[in-house]
Amino acid sequence: MIAPLPKILTIAEFLKQSYIEESPAWEYADGVVTQKPMPKTRHAILQKRLLAAIDRHSETYTALPELRCTFAGRSVVPDVAVIAWDRIQVNEAGEPEDNFLEAPDWSIEILSPDRKASRVIDNLLHCIKHGCQLGWMIDPDDYSVLIFAPQQEPKVCRGNHQLQILEGITLELTAEQVFEWLKIAKR
């Protein structure tokens, strides 16, 4: 017996589904819906440290965790979406609109053991193709950061290699410094 193929949804149908905002988030690409894996401790620590470090070093950009970005026929939820403050649409009350309908300026994904690298890379490439200035895929098992930027070949960074950061963010980081955040001294 042949298993039935999963139902292909349009992006409009996907966005109407009640489950997509459950944790962990659901993403949509090419008619296929996938759920991100539940973050584990290393993932959560890296995400927390990145959010704090980026926000501490920029007044132009903000770093947001798990923000749904829906654009160019896809709906992705980067682990960290870095967006220029002036790109965030506000309502009449001066509060941000709930739906972000563009690519982030910088999309950061932290690879989980349960997630296929090809899916993460595909999302990062989609972001870059549609206006994102920088993409990172952080691999905690390999202690590497794979960097994507428009009109540049992807670059793998390890050790004391300086990581590419968005212009306007005064943060300086190496791959080694990122993974040092995972070292926890026993109290």
From TrEMBL:
It comes from Tumidithrix elongata BACA0141. This is Uma2 family endonuclease. The lineage of its organism: Bacteria, Bacillati, Cyanobacteriota, Cyanophyceae, Pseudanabaenales. InterPro entries: Nuclease_put_TT1808, Restrct_endonuc-II-like, Uma2. Keywords: Endonuclease, Hydrolase, Nuclease. The keyword Membrane does not apply. Gene3D superfamilies: tt1808, chain A (3.90.1570.10). GO terms for molecular function: endonuclease activity. It comes from the Bacteria. Pfam families: Uma2 (PF05685). Residues 12-174 form the Putative restriction endonuclease domain.
